[in-house]
Amino acid sequence: MRIIDKIYIDGAFVEPHGREWAPLFNPATEEQIGTVRLADAQDAERAVTAAKRAFPAFSTTTKAERIDMLKRLHAAVAARASDLVDAMREEYGAPSTFIDFAAPRAGNVFLDMANTLESYDFRRHIGRAEVEMRPSGVAVAITPWNSNYSFICGKLSAAIAAGATMVIKPSEMSAIQTQVVTECLHQAGLSKGVLNIVTGYGNVVGSALTAHRDVSKVTFTGSTATGRAIVHSAAATMKRVTMELGGKSPSIILDDADLDVAIPQVLSAGFLNSGQACIAGTRILVPEPMQGEIEARLKRAAMAFKVGDPADREVRVGPMVSRKQWERVQSYLRLGQEEGAILLTGGEGRPEGLDRGWFVRPTIFAGVRNDMRIAREEIFGPVLSVISYRDEDEAIRIANDTDYGLQAHVFSSDPDRAKRVADQIEAGRVIINGAPHEPLAPFGGFKQSGFGREFGVFGLEAFLEPRAVIR
């Protein structure tokens, strides 16, 4: 049983003022594996005070000094990659297909930002004005449970590069992962107060941080509903905000797509991170004449997505993070059938042979209309909807007929056609034919998927304010 009874403020692991404890579970077994003592509003105040005190000196560090810090952070995180893997597998239940990407990426984001910083010019001349990009001030990062240390490291890397100090509030459900990554970051030897991490409930610590008058910037990854509340709170003091919110991403299979390539890619995108991903491609758009063939292929291919113990490297879909999330997904499986959708594969209950653990049967609904709730609401589980279209124009219209706009996929044997369709999709990222990850490309959403961007130069500038001096 892990007992986590410290938070990280002003360069040290300290006892929180908060007295409330929360249980930690292994979602694959439903067994309690630890407890975490939660921070409270007074701890949030202590963390902001430390960050504010550190800001004047840190904001004047040189680019070379910040690059050195980023490289030290990378080395410290990379040195404990196996511990990060073990923590995510035990506490979150992610399959190896996701962990194998997430664990190295947690350290690599620091190198990516160091490379961005190498060529970044903080001073430039525009006409008669000298423009300086200055750090925005004390920043707050609020991170979710579905890729805990990747979000912590990604947001921290941009703040360090910009010269901003940071307070991070991770999900209380990810405390073991947070403990491991905090130990890594501590080893990098940043100055006191530059980094502070306070684990607590969103309505307690999160609310205190987003309303704090000494916080200048908030970056949040999570649900659209919570994002709205944070924007409302931040608006009182005109904080700068970056919101990376929900998604209902389309995967468009065009009529010239190579189905041998497209079908596995579509399912990988849809069942990514056990479906607990804002970028998951949960709406599969298929041409009407090919609907029967594609559905048959999807059903066969879905059987290859093994569900079970995430320690098994052949497992492609792990458990939901909690009983609450499992019950939420089950409610959508019932709803889809009530709405008239057809179960192509999957359905309610646990997969065969699994009598414990918050496992969901990977599910594909056919006969889905885009106005059904299962096609419009973010389920956050391994549940996909097949929607047919008559022609390319209707495919684009359906893809864009959503409240969200985070990511999309297009599959075609004709690169020019795929690009033409991609150019018409209202989403922050469009992936053509399963193209590999580009770490320096901007990431963020249109519409209710949020605003602002992360990663690369766009992520760096989210923590900077331009100041012009005109002679």
Automatic annotation (TrEMBL):
Q: In the Enzyme Commission scheme, what number(s) does this protein have?
A: 1.2.1.3
User: Which Pfam families does the record match to this protein?
Assistant: Aldedh
Positions of the catalytic residues:
244
SUPFAM superfamilies given in the database record: ALDH-like
The keyword Nucleus belongs to this UniProt entry's keyword annotation: no
Q: Which InterPro entries does the entry link to?
A: Ald_DH/histidinol_DH, Ald_DH_C, Ald_DH_CS_CYS, Ald_DH_CS_GLU, Ald_DH_N, Aldehyde_DH_dom
* Stretches assigned to the Aldehyde dehydrogenase domain: 14-469
Name the keywords, alphabetized. Oxidoreductase
Q: Which Gene3D superfamilies does the record match to this protein?
A: Aldehyde Dehydrogenase, Chain A, domain 1 (3.40.605.10), Aldehyde Dehydrogenase, Chain A, domain 2 (3.40.309.10)
Catalysed reaction(s) here are:
an aldehyde + NAD(+) + H2O = a carboxylate + NADH + 2 H(+)
What PANTHER family does the entry give? Answer: ALDEHYDE DEHYDROGENASE, ALDEHYDE DEHYDROGENASE-RELATED
- UniProt similarity note: Belongs to the aldehyde dehydrogenase family.
Q: What is the recorded name of this protein? A: aldehyde dehydrogenase (NAD(+))
Could you tell me which species this protein originates from?
Answer: Neorhizobium phenanthreniclasticum
